[in-house]
What does this fold into?
Amino acid sequence: MADDQTIYLSDGKIELPEELNKILQIEKEIRKVLVGQDYLVNRMLIALICNQHILIEGVPGLAKTLSVNTLSKTLGLDFKRIQFTPDLLPADILGTLIYNPKTGEFSPKKGPVFSNMILADEINRAPAKVQSALLESMQERQVTIGDETWKLDEPFMVMATQNPIEQEGTYPLPEAQVDRFMLKVKITYPDKAEELSILRMMAKSAPKAEIETVATAEDVLVVRNFLDNVHIEPSIEEYIVDIIQAGRQPSAYGIEAEHLIKYGASPRATIFLTLAAKASALLKGRMFVVPEDVKELSYDVLRHRLIPSYEAEAEGLSSDQIINMIINKLPTP
It folds into this structure.
């Protein structure tokens, strides 16, 4: 059904907001300096449009820092990188109060979290006390130092990374904190053609291509508000709920995976999968969600929420493989 913000053209298509065209230019701009990470860039844009955060798992050297830094440049936003280490303190992230002996007063010194985009590099290298320092920022969009609280500027997105190889000296993220991330993205090595393109683009001393600002924070907020206008059929809404429910009670859906799942996903996964599917449709130039949008994003939304049992780990089954079992078994609307 059309509303005041929806315009139908003569050929039956819907005119998308001009601000969305600017957001779509971001991918083109990022390709000036980045090769073979289209999947990562797409997921970052989805998280940005949905006003959420993203957790990335991948080995060092796969351009994670370059990706988020370049994204911030295309939007003209502030970017800060925080290297998480075992000796990091919450004040190193949030900021602290500095005593002025001349006035006898404390004044706040704001930490790097007061930026639009945060790269929390190797977040699992810091203990839980430091990891949880980001929680208030991520959920409440505010920071408290002493008795004073500041609202963070919009847009605000945390992109955290963790290394899947080195486990020595790391602290696993608590489930409650992992659940704050809308998506968990797994990135792998580039193929031969991509790596050859990387070599030709980056293995030179000449200055790299200049990144232009093609959109603004205001454009992101307009597209974010437009997200509610993306249509989703009731049958697809039920499909999303069935996917989440099947992760909790697989036998109820005829899936023999009860012994493979320790914990299912929370209702937050239902909300995030719906929002992510809508954002994905928008980025593809559609004003409606199709089942393929849901299937594609199911892995990113659920892989850190659907916890495999010890039996599954013993059989070498990952959460992705269990999600695949659920997707393949449920009928597509």
Notes: The chain has two domains: 37-192, 230-329.
